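#onboarding

Welcome to the new folks! Below is a worked example of what a typical request in this channel looks like: someone posts a single protein sequence, and someone else replies with the predicted structure as tokens. Don't worry about understanding the tokens yet, we'll cover that in week two.

Example request:
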Amino acid sequence: MPFLEFVAGSISGALGIAFGYPFDTVKVRLQAQTLYRGIFNCVVQTYTHEGIHGFYKGMLFPLVSTGFSNSIVFGCYSNSLDYLTQSQRSRRSQGQPPSLVHVFNAGCVAGLVQVCLMAPIELVKVRMQGQATTSKYHGSFHCVATILKEAGPGRLFCGWQAHMLRDVPCYGLYFWAYEVTCNALTERGRQPDTFTILLAGGVAGVASWGCATPMDVVKARLQLSGAGGPTYRGFLDCILVSFREEGVRVFFKGLMLNSIRAFPVNALTFLSYEYLMRLFYPVDS
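Example response:
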């Protein structure tokens, strides 16, 4: 039943965001601002000036929405893969793992759909997290209302080009890396055990964020443009100005933090998703 893939994705996504949100806040601030000297300095300054609350700014909105986002990603991936392979979810237990090309393509489809639906929510999350020295927005819904009043509905999709270039190929890599790791560590015809799922999920997260970080930096800067960050005229202007002012290293800001955060968050996400699917489809066990 396709609906169950969306349910499992929603629950696993909410668990992942609850665990990894403080890391994500630090990552956004490092990428979009130059007032921090590194990860530790960002953590110390955030805690000193804002307390623990500073790491969870704007969390309620993405906590609910990321569950929805993850349900889209995992639901679209699973159903796209079934369509591409014309197989059932029990393919692994039957000793017929899907083609890795199909896995990558299904992941790209999931990333594309996710971007189309979630771009405004991602914008609000970044703007709330980026409020280190100002409090322009009193909450996520006030942020939406302010953006609509000041710039209109189109502004909610600011940074969509970078968002698309980040998520479409990287979700393909995400699921590809997960399947490759599971296949390498699991005997043919058997389901991956808990350790394998955790390791494969962590590897998938690190691999995808390693690929995504350059466009993640550009996306964060565009989404904070004129709202606590420098103002850019567009996608290419952001890339050129950032490169001219800070060099190529600017596009890897937050890479270490992304990797540190990605492993446990995605290990937990995949573990909860896989076990929920086994609960929903006990015949596959």
